[in-house]
TrEMBL record:
Entry keyword set: Carbohydrate metabolism, Glucose metabolism, Hydrolase, Signal
Statement: the UniProt record of this protein carries the keyword Hydrolase: yes
Enzyme Commission number, as recorded: 3.1.1.31
Signal peptide: 1-18
Stated name of the protein: 6-phosphogluconolactonase
Enzyme class, first EC level, given as a word: hydrolase
GO MF assignments: 6-phosphogluconolactonase activity
One GO BP annotation of this record: glucose metabolic process
């Protein structure tokens, strides 16, 4: 099993004490892994006990947790013309079980990063293979609508083996969540978008629309 996510952001407290958490681990499923694994983690003892795992989607390689602690989102990092997907789950703190709500196409292959706004209304995905960023409105139950925006990067850079085309590899909100930053390995740029949470299409280019870095930095 290849572990691709092991982050403090993916802990949810399940006891009254601050030292006991649920730990979520995303994996690649092409060599027998089941998907997302849930463990009970004791921070004081440094021990982890398996609780459950999903068996409902391919390559849930990156995860994020909604601020309500009830919904978890994963990319499904798959290549091909049909593009990847993003999955929405509910989490039961009593049983430690994840339940799949739905999946939505990201519009680009190889999605590798997913973020959610603090108010749990919008999910944003970075498509590494597709070189694009997709935006999803979140329903009240935590499920996802089809993407409302798909923003395609263009260009290349010095290393023709790795930078032959855009490769968006992250999507990070500013502290106030009024901007979104999407680094692109393929173009040596960090794209900058204004983010209007009250709009049906919340992303628009900022001024300036990107920051360019020297190749190799």
């Amino acid at each position: 099993m290849r572990i691709s996510i092991l982050s403090l952001l993916l802990f949810i407290s399940f006891f009254a004490t601050a030292q006991n958490f649920y730990l979520f681990i995303g994996t690649y499923t092409n060599k027998g892994s089941k998907g997302i694994y849930v463990y009970r983690f004791n921070a004081a003892a440094g021990t982890a006990e398996w609780v459950s795992n999903t068996d409902s989607s391919a390559n849930p390689s990156y995860l994020t947790i909604a601020s309500n602690g009830k919904n978890i989102y994963s990319v499904n990092e798959t290549p091909g013309d049909e593009g990847g997907k993003v999955s929405a789950y509910t989490f039961d703190k009593t049983t430690g079980q994840l339940s799949l709500l739905n999946q939505a196409s990201t519009g680009g292959d190889g999605p590798c990063y997913v973020s959610i706004t603090k108010n749990n209304k919008w999910v944003v995905v970075a498509n590494y293979g597709g070189g694009s960023t997709s935006v999803f409105a979140v329903n009240k139950d935590g499920s996802l609508n089809e993407y409302s925006q798909l923003l395609q990067d263009s260009g290349s850079s010095a290393n023709k083996k790795r930078q032959e085309k855009p490769h968006v590899h992250s999507a990070v909100f500013s502290p106030g969540q009024d901007y979104l930053f999407t680094p692109d390995l393929g173009t040596d740029k960090v794209m900058i978008y204004k983010f209007d949470q009250d709009s049906q299409k919340p992303l628009s280019p900022a001024a300036p629309p990107y920051v360019a870095v020297a190749p190799g930095n």
